[in-house]
Amino acid sequence: MSESRLHQLSALGQSVWIDFLSREMLQTGELERLMRDDAVVGITSNPTIFQKAISQGGLYDEQIRASLGQVDDPKEIFWRLAEKDVGDACDVLRPIWDEGQGQDGYVSIEVDPNLAGDTEGTIAEARRLHAEIDRPNLFVKIPATKEGLPAIEEMIASGKNINVTLIFSLERYAEVVEAYIRGLERLVESGGDPSQVASVASFFVSRVDTETDKRLDELGGHDELKGKLAIANAKLAYQRYKEL
After folding, report:
1. Domains of the chain
2. Which of 36, 74, 80, 175 sits 20 to 30 Å CA-CA off 13?
3. Residue positions annotated with a catalytic role
């Protein structure tokens, strides 16, 4: 059987991640198939993704019923469901993480979006998720808001893996890098090992094009730029990364 295009992309050095996770994928072997047939080496998730997964089918019903007798807060039940799926996905991807010595094999879970403007709340939630899921190949997603920047520094300083999300501009990317470096410096000063901390910066593309294409329509006469500005923006960010 010929290699898939994603396998060809992987051979060029790109890490293929999927932007979805569900209990059905875990229980049917679909995740293992994606790893085998499409070179998938990572997963990202968010509350919207889990809402979609939980609302389809009955694979979550048993855990929901068990949780109803233990907690009253629907949000806590939601997090129990999401944390189990993420932990199980981390276990499936763990061999990739082991083989690559932490290069790939990660699963991301996002802190509560309602905390995007709350630095201390974000830090507390990120720590809680790391403690509850307790996997070495876990990324906790922290938004690159102004309030999220100190949380990025704090989590890196404490030696925890993070995925910085919602990065749209070069200016904010530079601020994220500065927070990351400050965190590493603090980690080293406290005797920690920076080689044991992983992080990624999730630079958004499609949403930038959606906004810039709309503005190009308003200006008129620049159709040749449609669908190109976001990729150019991402290329400039990658160039800055290589210069670090």
Report:
1. 5-204 (3.20.20.70), 205-244 (no CATH)
2. 175
3. 141
